[in-house]
Request: fold
Amino acid sequence: MQINMNNKTNQSFGGIKLMSGAEDTLRRVFKPADWVQSDKIAKEQENNTVDVYLFGHNGGKLMGRIIPKNSNFKDKDYYQLPFFESTIKFIDKMAKKANIVKEKIDKLPAVNIDEIVGRLK
Reply:
């Protein structure tokens, strides 16, 4: 897995981005198999237009934020469930949620706002 180490606050996996505290959390809790799985998830998300931002939260847990680019969808935050959800399961869940949001955005009809406003004048 490639991690851009030049910018500590925004290390990018493509569609998945590590923010404050996330790298430390991953380094503390990931097993070797988790790194392999996270690399697979990261490669699948590289071209997703919906970003997943991961933050370290609450001593070894993650918080994730789904951020749709170029759409009117609102950002949404999620927290890793203590004791019930491993870190890799949480990252996988976030990637799946990003895919669902992308599918919803892709299904929206193309709207020309200027054209609609012109009709309303």
About this structure: The radius of gyration is 17 Å. The longest helix spans residues 87-107.
